[in-house]
Design a protein that fits this description.
It is built from one helix and eight strands; from the N terminus they run αββββββββ. 15% of the residues lie in helices and 45% in strands. The chain has a domain of 101 residues: Sandwich (Immunoglobulin-like). It is mainly β and 149 residues long. The N terminus is likely disordered. It starts with a helix and ends in a 7-residue tail after the last strand. It comes from Nonomuraea mangrovi. Keywords: Signal. This is Spore-associated protein A.
C-alpha cells in the first residue's frame, strides 16, 4: 500500500512539473513566419537585431546562399512582440555600389536577392516600430564584409 501511495504521489508531481514547463513563456526572441528564399538556398548566418532603446530583440536578419547560382538572399523578420512601422532587408556586393533592398510588409522584408559569385557581401536588416507599451524605436544591424563565395 505504501508503494502505491508513493507511485501515485510521484505521478502527480511529474504531471504538475510538466504542466509548469508547458505554461512558461519562452525567454528568447521568436521571429514571425514568412517567406523563404526557395530551393537550393542554405542558411549562412543569422543575427538578432536589437532596438536602440531597451536593447530588446526586435527581429532577426538571415543570409542564405545558393552555390549553384551564386545568388545571396536576405530576409528580415520581426519578433512577434515588436510592432513595425517599417522593415527592410539589404544586401550589397563588394567592388561596386550594387545594393539590393526590400522594404517589406509589416512582419518581414525580403526575400532580397543579389548575384555575387566570387565576391564578398555585406547584409543587414532594419526595423522601426515599438514593443507593447513602449516608445517608438529603431533597430538596425549591418554585417561587415564577408561570405566571399
Amino acid at each position: 500500500m505504501q508503494v502505491m501511495k508513493r507511485a501515485g504521489t510521484m505521478a502527480g508531481a511529474v504531471a504538475l512539473a510538466g504542466a509548469v514547463v508547458l505554461t512558461t513563456a519562452p525567454a528568447h526572441a521568436e521571429p514571425v513566419k514568412g517567406p523563404s528564399c526557395g530551393a537550393g538556398f542554405y542558411l549562412q548566418e543569422s543575427h538578432k537585431i536589437r532596438d536602440t532603446g531597451a536593447g530588446r530583440v526586435a527581429g532577426v536578419v538571415y543570409l542564405y546562399y545558393n552555390t549553384s547560382t551564386g545568388y545571396n538572399c536576405v530576409i528580415t523578420r520581426r519578433d512577434k512582440d515588436f510592432r513595425t512601422d517599417s522593415i527592410a532587408a539589404t544586401v550589397r556586393r563588394s567592388g561596386d555600389n550594387e545594393l539590393s533592398r526590400d522594404k517589406g510588409y509589416r512582419s518581414y522584408a525580403g526575400p532580397t536577392y543579389l548575384h555575387a559569385k566570387g565576391q564578398c557581401v555585406k547584409f543587414g536588416g532594419q526595423l522601426v516600430g515599438r514593443f507593447p507599451f513602449g516608445n517608438r524605436s529603431k533597430a538596425e544591424w549591418i554585417s561587415g564584409w564577408g561570405h566571399c563565395g
